[in-house]
Amino acid sequence: MFRSRSPRATAALVLLLALLGVAPQMAGSAQEEVTLRIWDQFTGPESEVVDQIYEGFAEQNPDVTIERESFGTDEMRQTLNAALGSGTGPDVILYDPGPGYAGILVDAGLLRPLDDLADQFGWRDRIVESALLGTTIDGELYGLPLTTDIIGLYANQTLLAEEGLQMPETVEQLVAFCGQASEKGFIPIAFGDSEGWPAFHQFSMMSNQTIGPEAMRRLLYENEGSWDTSEIVTAIKTFFVDLQEAGCFNPDVNAISYDDANSLFYTGQALMTPTGSWLANDIQENMPDQEVSLVPFPQIAGSQGRVWPSGVGSAYFVSAQSAHQTEAGQLLDYLVSPETAQRWVGEARFFLPLQVDTAALEISPLSQSVLDVLESAAAGQTQLGYNVDVLAPPEFNDTMLNGFQTILAGDKTPEQQAADLQAAWEAGIQATPAP
Amino acid sequence: MATSVAPRGGATRAGWMPPRLSRSGGEIARYAVLLAFLVVFLLPILWIWSSAFKSSIEIARSPFGLPETLRWENLTEAWTTGRFDRYLWNSVIYCTAIVGGVVALSCLAGYALALLPLPARDAILLVFLLGLMVPFQSVMIPLYYLLRDLQMLETYWAFIVPGIALRLPFGIFLMRGFFRGLPPELADAARLDGANEWGVFRQVMLPLATPGLATLVVFQFMFTWNQFLMPLVFVQRDELRPVSLGTMFFFGRFTADRGMIAAGVTISMLPVVLLYLLLQRRFIEGITAGALKS
Amino acid sequence: MAQTGFAPVADPARRATTGGLSGHWAKYRAGYLFVLPAFLLYAVFMIYPFAQSIYLSFTDWNGVEATKGFVGFANYRRLAGDDLLWSSLGHTLIWVAVGTIVPLVVGLALAMLLWRRPRGFTLFRTVFFMPQVLSSVVIAIVWGWIYNPIFGILNRGLDGIGLDALSRGWLGDPDVALFAVLAASSWAETGFVFVVFLAGLQNVSRDLLEAAMLDGANAWQRFRNVTVPQLANVVNVVTALLLIGGFSAFDIVFAMTGGGPANATELIATYTYKEAFTQNRIGYAATLSLVITVISLVASVVFIRLRERGES
């Protein structure tokens, strides 16, 4: 009916037809060659090692091609739902476990349970039980735990020694420390909360201290107890009100991103930064000639004692709609095999919830200190606390996110926040059962 | 002197001009304000361009200064690691297809709604008018699932097809406005000469509507190139992302490396800015013509 | 321009040689065929999804289940008690109001200043319009950096000229964040308004202005009594475009703050996106999207009515 009207229209038509021809190819996968698409969040210096690790699997399985894409945390959380729901998204993802993250995907039926694979490959023999518990939702195993985190306070020991400052052991000493550090022109503690989730880890540290790990475990796993207690209020107040008023943080906490705060620590403008063991690799890459240590957060007066909150940091999940379930399963097993585990620990400097033979590996003092804590915990000598956000429902995490930012802005009291947390917890528990 | 207007103001060849301020103080004030705004409008852009040549440390240390050395590595890194070559090419594909589609369909429909007999003309116009007022959020969710069911989400069509469909109301009203401004006698004369309707459209009326066409192309190109929400929702694969989305994900991946970010942002800006500088007149004429015709 | 109808001889309707349906078809064939492609595409990808949106708003679908649970008006009842919705609406209203007035005023002022085409006119016009061609993502990143308390140039600039009392964490302060994002958005929108006014000013009637000048009216009086009324049409168009765009504003807020800090910059469009694509609450998100639609429609209708009244 329509003859081509102009060269431009013809060109456009030809282009469209060409795309039409290309489109079907993109929509499906070829018969024998399998392409596994992996989405992860490794964007730092470890990214190259991760590439090599995936390569290793491709070498062992020549008919599998790996397509990898890495995202920043927020972008991942924003787009993962839609991508998995489209039925054409990634096959394997590295994501945060817990009702607030992977739990949402499980509720939407987007992830595949892994119990059968765990039995088939014998994961339960190799992987620490508490880690597997951390990726179990509604009684089924959904995630293969990769990294185990502990959260504490990093301190630049080199600078502390240079400036003649003592490492504080209690919050009281910490406040004094902040005054001294500020006078010398340093930022005592680098803390950026513009994304909102860094506050989760601070809250974990404080609340595990004030109510103790055992009470925390009962609260998170068995819904025994309440968030609306004076201990929780103390926890919130100590960090988000008292320390801020004491001038311990950089100004404009809500306007500074996590990465910006870290860079303050890397460049020596800040003496300490409170975050998790996942940053150990970045720290060593960015501060090669400084001695950095990771210690539990100083003791709050009257608390149950200094403690390391811990949790499964990230886990591998499989899309329920993936066309390559077998290959995905094999990939997962490869990723926690003893050889690969050595590479994770030795080269990428991650901490895995597995027994890893580290004799032949080059481990820095900082990483060794973390491994020591984990080993001690596995041996039952140290009790670890519980990182809250990976075990709490999404409503709770939302309240944490908004509430702590509002407290930092001076518009909310710790008491209000504690009450809101309890309300959000109850609402979330009704929607989804506790882990 | 660049201007040759009568100092007292009044009618001139360039149109009516207000009188020149007699005190030079007024002139100075005018220029002061204009220059202040010039700085406000220009500084952010110049800053990001100069930052593209600095290392992250230098950006933090001396944000206002000129780069010490021209670090071209930022740009080449961003281009390859940031996959901007891919994103720019995708944007070209999307813009060509969507602008082409919108222009083609809007011309046809706009012409018909302006000059051809149609029994339900007013009803059809109303339906398209509603589309102008319905925001994207109202349809994006069902559209997502529709595209999924049609298996289009993995392809370029995921953005092209809704991209065209949702801009049709705007294009149709624009082209209809232009066609209505044409004398119908020309069409009648062509018909008298024996041309069929298609011939009348193609040979007679369409060439006359070229200013309208140009306007639509400019509007649509700018809009589509910078479109963000629609590709965010519908384009799931990185290989198919347009440059607007690619920039955002690039930013998420490399937040710490400010030099790279600045380079990436500069790259994503460059095509449109260059196009704008070259075709400035066209851009501005198109925008004003379109706005005034509405 | 009014359609006066076709000249009798060339009237395609007259070409119909038979009456009835085939005559009807022959008369309207061209019209139908020309409109068909556009209408078809539009019907499938706009009308149908919109109808579906209305249907979804009565369900509690999460996007994956095979069956969509019908819940009647539950989603609508939820609207009333949803605090986040009301604060988002409030923010959206502020966004629409400020985001319309500021570009309007500044754009007009700049156009007036350049009316005389002083030296450097082309340079000024080029620069003032340039931000319009940038994508929201680029604007968000650039201005996000400008506002950064550590290495951004705004705080450094303020400190440099002695106004360091004003420097703060712009995008981290819930009281200020929305306006900071608005400033970035207006930075881009003003250019559009500016060029439209520039063109509109060319059409201001010279006779009336000359007459006013001869009558001894000063600049302000000329502005108020002659220029402004003549610009009324342009003001209407620009305001309408800014208003409608404002209610569904999404891109720049999403890219700059994602709705934070503490939902201080949450607009109804960003809230809708999150409900749909992060929380998988499709039914409620559809309800929210209809809220946006209704508000836009009402605003458009009110605006058209006011304009008609103004013209009469």
Structure report:
The complex is a heterotrimer of chains A (435), B (294) and C (312). Chain A is an alpha/beta fold. Chain A has 2 domains: 34-147 and 313-378, 3-Layer(aba) Sandwich (D-Maltodextrin-Binding Protein, domain 2); 149-310 and 392-431, D-Maltodextrin-Binding Protein, domain 2 (3-Layer(aba) Sandwich), CATH 3.40.190. Helix content of chain A is 49%, strand content 14%. Chain A is built from 19 helices and 11 strands. In chain A, a hairpin with a 2-residue loop joins strand 4 and strand 5. The longest helix of chain A has 21 residues, at 7-27. Chain A is globular, with a radius of gyration of 24 Å. Mean pLDDT of chain A is 88; it is low at 1-6 and 19-31. Chain B has 294 residues and is mainly α. Helices cover 73% and strands 2% of the residues of chain B. Chain B has helices at residues 24-51, 56-61, 72-81, 84-115, 121-133, 137-149, 157-165, 168-180, 184-192, 197-208, 210-226, 229-234, 243-253, 258-278, 280-293, and strands at 10-12, 15-17. In chain B, helix 3 crosses helix 14 and helix 8 runs antiparallel to helix 11. Chain C has 312 residues and is mostly helical. Chain C folds into 2 domains: 8-56, no CATH class; 82-311, Orthogonal Bundle (MetI-like fold). Chain C contains 12 helices and no strands. The model of chain C is unreliable at 1-16 (pLDDT under 50). Classes of the chains: A alpha/beta (435), B mainly alpha (294), C mainly alpha (312). Chains in contact: A-B, A-C, B-C. The interface between B and C is large, with 114 and 116 residues.
